[in-house]
Amino acid sequence: DAALTYRNAELPFIIRNDPNVMSVARRWEDDTEYLHNALGDERLFRTERSPVNDFMWYRLRGKGTKPRGFVKPPNDEVSMSYGEWLERALAKDAEALQGEELSAMVNELKERRMKLITRKKQDDSLENDDRDQDNSTEEEKLKNWYYFRLTASL
Asked: Which end of the chain has the smaller Cβ count within 10 Å, N or C?
């Protein structure tokens, strides 16, 4: 109840030792493919993208009037599959940690995604939604090294 009160007031909060949260965390830790299997590589989700590791929570209220000095954060929104999100997240970790095993996982995920893209061009049957997809080239995506926050419901 307290968490809902904080959430509805749009205030930050931390949940500790909640049995429901702990059981989900254990399931995800025990089965590292759980989320990937649940969310897949084809369905697209609303994904916030930022050139910095700082996702600002903001919501303009009222008639959309901006407060004096308001600067819109550099975040934007794209549609992305969980598989691509995972690839991008692991690529950031591999770069930061110089991890060869992580780099190999990133390459496997990218190869899998590229095969799906090729198949989609031939078949055009992958699920889609009404948000714009990120049409940047792979080189542009690597150069920008965006951080991503995926929004999905299980």
From this structure: N
DSSP-derived 3-state class of residue 13: coil
Q: Is 140 helix (H, G, I), strand (E, B) or coil?
A: helix
Give per-residue pLDDT as tens, 38-57.
Answer: 888 888 888 888 877 766 66
Separation between Cα atoms, residue 146 and residue 50, nearest integer Å = 6
For the stretch 99-136, pLDDT in tens is 899 899 989 989 988 888 888 777 665 544 444 456 67
Contact by Cβ (8 Å): 85, 148:
yes
DSSP string, 52-71: SS--------TTSPPPTT--
**Long-range pairs, 88-97, Cβ under 8 A, ≥24:** 88/141, 88/146, 88/148, 89/148, 91/142, 92/145, 92/147, 95/145
Distance (Å, whole) CA 110 – CA 132: 20
98: tokens are 């110089």
User: pTM (2 decimals)?
Assistant: 0.66
